[in-house]
Amino acid sequence: MDDHRLKVFCIVAETKSFSKASEIIHLTQPAVSLQIQALEEIYDTKLFDRSSSTVSLTPAGEILYAYAKQILSLYAQAEKEIANLTGLIKGSIRIGASTTIANYLLPSVISDFKKINKKVRVHLLIGNTKRIVDHLNNGIINFGLVEGDVSKYKLKIEKVLKDELVVIVPADHPLSNRKNISVKELLNEPFILREEGSGTRQVIEKYLATFGIAISDLNITAILGGTEAIKEAVEDGTGISIVSKWAVRREVSRGTLKMLPLKEERLTRDFSLIHKNPVFNAAAIEFLEFLKKYEYEKLFNRSR
Known about the structure:
The chain is elongated, with a radius of gyration of 23 Å. Among the domains are: 1-86, Arc Repressor Mutant, subunit A (Orthogonal Bundle), CATH 1.10.10; 162-268, Periplasmic binding protein-like II (D-Maltodextrin-Binding Protein, domain 2), CATH 3.40.190.10. The chain is built from 12 helices and 11 strands. It is α/β, with parallel strands linked by helices. It has helices at residues 4-15, 18-25, 29-43, 59-86, 99-104, 106-116, 129-137, 199-209, 227-235, 249-254, 282-293, 298-302; strands spanning 48-49, 56-57, 91-97, 120-126, 143-147, 156-170, 190-194, 219-224, 241-244, 257-260, 267-275.
């Protein structure tokens, strides 16, 4: 339950584009324009300035936008409370997630969520952190889940889970029986690295620098553009590498790879929830609560 015209109005205001709004809400651009025109007729004033290359709110539009967000928030809260009473959660959620989270965590989370919320539709968009932030700013997704430091973006940020990056070696590697590995020992092994610009690579570079080690000091045998390619190359004996522990839980369970924490100091990063002035429906609120309470460690047991 909500006022569809107000929702359309808010999306146009946030994306500053009638065409982007039409893509997000799956209406034709003329249909979006008609929704805005209907509101302008009700208030007998222009809500958007269309004279420039971008669409911007008029002073009257600014006032309506502030109240519209409150109204939609109240609709969402009413929907949430009624859903709690009836036990029926429905609606759709648009999530954006960076690669590690999208590929290795969210499929299980979404599957478990759907088992108890069968009428909720979940749409997942995958991309690097910058792309997810762009989707959020353009109103394409309700919220995002990203890895690493996102403090430079003007968004609401909530830490959801701590990720640990670990060294991975083949099961038959001389180091495979070790409980951990020293940073200095990395210099003695052929090393497989992520491509330049990768968030994982940036975290690794920053970590090694604290021990006076540059990327050029490593014996790099390959630079690959994805975690799946790296795992396969490590299994084939091309070298060792560093990846998220979540990415190798199945290989470790099957016994094809071994993961070794770094001895001196654990290499960690945050998985964070990002959003901006959200107006969430009952389905999104329910999913966020489920996400924050989820027992992620049980996924390792599930892989066995």
